[in-house]
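quick q for whoever's on today - can somebody do inverse folding on this one?? i tried earlier but teh output was garbage lol. tokens:
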């Protein structure tokens, strides 16, 4: 994407190797923290307001819109978990700091095998933003094409439009 120059790229690649080593060592929290450092370095060095869409010169703003939608009375009623009244004090929050503190380490664990199992039972839509430098098309293609499942041949042979 050309966000950083060759010198910055070498440093980013060194940080990336540290992340990979921490994942291999199953040091999940440290891997997540180092990954956050790496992403912040790329964003800062590249001058991007957000890695979620590198074309933007302002931060990503859809979270507040999604939060408002998911907290709307009608949707709360439709999606209320069993035993939780739709009028409860619980509310949807995108990127909750509390949830991230508790579950953030889990982000670094692969669920690739679970995706392959899921694909054997139902259609799946995996989203990746075309201009997303954090989890974009290239990085997702790399692991998706290694999945082994009943539709793999058709998927890899399908013409992109």
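ok took a stab at it. sequence:
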């Amino acid at each position: 994407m050309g966000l950083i120059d060759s010198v910055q790229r070498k440093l980013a690649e060194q940080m990336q190797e540290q992340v990979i080593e921490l994942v291999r060592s199953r040091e999940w929290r440290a891997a997540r923290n180092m990954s956050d450092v790496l992403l912040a370095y790329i964003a800062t060095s590249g001058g991007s307001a957000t890695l979620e869409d590198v074309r933007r010169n302002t931060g990503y703003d859809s979270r507040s819109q999604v939060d408002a939608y998911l907290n709307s009375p009608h949707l709360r009623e439709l999606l209320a978990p069993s035993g939780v009244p739709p009028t409860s004090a619980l509310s949807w929050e995108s990127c909750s700091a509390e949830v991230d503190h508790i579950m953030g380490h889990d982000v670094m664990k692969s669920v690739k095998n679970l995706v392959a199992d899921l694909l054997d039972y139902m259609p799946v839509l995996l989203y990746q933003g075309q201009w997303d430098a954090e989890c974009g098309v290239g990085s997702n293609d790399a692991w998706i094409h290694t999945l082994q499942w009943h539709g793999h041949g058709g998927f890899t042979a399908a013409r992109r439009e």
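fwiw Residues 110-161 form one domain. also The mean pLDDT is 87. so keep that in mind when u check it
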